[in-house]
From TrEMBL:
Residues 127-306 form the FCP1 homology domain. NCBIfam families: HIF-SF_euk. The lineage of its organism: Eukaryota, Viridiplantae, Streptophyta, Embryophyta, Tracheophyta. PROSITE patterns: FCP1. This is FCP1 homology domain-containing protein. It comes from Linum trigynum.
Length: 336
């Protein structure tokens, strides 16, 4: 009971519940916590870039050059590889469903072409789409390969202890020693999840291997990772073309005439500069990244969603804006 002073010197007695102060204190604590959480959310939102800005930052603005002599590239070629830009880790993004028409980009033609079968693709309503064609690069996209003599022992040990699948192959070099072909011994590390990735993508897409590596190196390697012959087509360095700006460019028209349903996944974006709207630039893989999960957690979901697109190019353009990226690197792209 509390006494309050009243007018005329009298006093009034007011009954106060003994638990009221506890209840008030509890509510004040709850309100204070809610206010704190609200301020924290506001600060996070203020400091977070838009989705578009995040995507652009992931695909190449302010990228650093990779070393010109990558160990993985040296295993596949006797010549010094072209330096290329690496892409930061791709985010998991939702591919917008749309039916926007877009004319195919300009591209040079080469004689070899494999027209893949139609049908067996995703179904939208009553319309069955042509099966998606997924073109996969080899080195630093699916595997990381090193000449055995150049592989640092500590790197090999760490990669194996971390659980990376690996194997060794003998491949024929393009160099000759005393009139005989040189044999190179190569250690190959599979990117985590590779076998499951090939199996699951093969359920909804044609798989094509397209590498700038020499066939003497790449063929025995692919025989090891593709025992089940999931690749319906294998293309090696002779199938690449030279352009004004880069060598060993992969012209997707040798894979399919219908570029609406073709996607290429390559860690080197210059490989698909002839068809920039069809490319997914992936993070380069090396044996020093044993806990990489790009294939199953990023690339696979993206490809699965693209398989429902009548034309993959508008969605890929919205995600990566590759024509602008090439222009920033001094390569004008003319889309016709």
């Amino acid at each position: 009971m509390a006494e309050l002073g009243g007018g005329g010197g009298g006093r009034q007695q007011v009954w106060v519940s003994p638990n009221s102060s506890v209840v008030v204190g509890a509510w004040r604590g709850i309100v204070n916590w809610l206010g704190f959480l609200l301020q924290l959310c506001i600060q996070i939102l203020r400091g977070t870039p838009s989705v578009a800005q995040m995507l652009l930052s992931y695909v190449g603005f302010g990228q650093s050059l990779l070393p010109a002599a990558s160990p993985s590239r040296n295993a596949s070629s006797s010549s010094t590889p072209l330096p290329h830009r690496s892409f930061k880790r791709l985010p998991v993004v939702e591919v917008p469903l749309q039916e926007t028409d877009m004319s195919p980009p300009a591209a040079g033609r080469i004689s070899a072409r494999a027209d893949l079968g139609e049908g067996d693709g995703a179904t939208i309503g009553d319309h069955q789409l042509e099966k998606l064609t997924v073109v996969l690069d080899l080195d630093e996209t699916l595997v990381s390969a090193y000449e055995k003599s150049n592989l640092p022992p500590n790197l090999r040990t760490r990669a194996i202890e971390a659980g990376l699948k690996w194997f060794e192959i003998e491949c024929i070099s393009d160099k000759e020693i005393e009139g005989r072909k040189k044999i190179n011994y190569v250690t190959v590390f599979e990117r985590p999840g590779l076998q499951e990735f090939l199996t699951r993508v093969g359920e909804f897409a044609h798989l094509v291997l397209f590498t700038a590596g020499l066939e003497g190196y790449a063929r025995p390697l692919v025989d090891k990772i593709d025992i089940e012959n999931r690749f319906c087509l294998r293309l090696y360095r002779p199938s690449t073309v030279s352009t004004e700006h880069k060598e060993h460019v992969k012209d997707l028209l040798c894979v399919s005439k219908n570029l609406r349903r073709v996607v290429i996944v390559d860690n080197n974006p210059f490989s698909f500069l002839l068809q920039p709207l069809n490319g997914i630039p992936c993070v380069p893989f090396s044996a020093g990244q044993p806990y990489d999960h790009q294939l199953l957690e990023v690339v696979l979901p993206m490809l699965r969603q693209l398989s429902y697109q009548k034309d993959v190019r508008p969605s890929l353009y919205q995600m990566f804006h590759m024509p602008e990226w090439f222009q920033m690197h001094g390569i004008p792209i003319a889309l016709t």
